[in-house]
Specification:
alpha+beta; 5-stranded antiparallel sheet; 7 strands; globular
Amino acid sequence: MEYYLAQANIARFKAQLDHPIMKEFVDFLEPVNKFAEESPGFVWRLKDNQGRPASYIQSPFKDENMAVNISLWEDVDAFKAFVYGSVHSYFLRNKKKWFDVKGPSQFVLWWLPKGELPTLDMAKEKLEFLEQNGASPQAFTMAEFYDCTGHRIEAPLSRQRMKHNSSE
């Protein structure tokens, strides 16, 4: 069976999206998401019913300022290239401008069988699982990474080796 790498992250906005302090973030939502969609290894991202970024979706965390971002990638190399090696890294480095970074786990990874899509409820469960149990094959982070067979690895493997095919 082949797997994709699912990621979810949550962050609490410092203000509503129409507030002036959020302008730079909001202005770049569409371009950064478009760049993600055009990136090698991108599979899918959560959008609202109108095709807007997930930042406009009502959060399952009972906080109207809590943003949820979920995406699916072919492997960790593709995900890392986008997150840390593209324009996205600017927003990651400057997240304190727009987000309150205190609180529980804000980022989680897990493997999902090809053909399945992650959901808001699934992301919430994975974040809560990670917070309560620590990293495991069910929910992990870049610092404590598991491959798709459930083995803990020190450093992410190459793009070719991250894909798991039961016929191998």
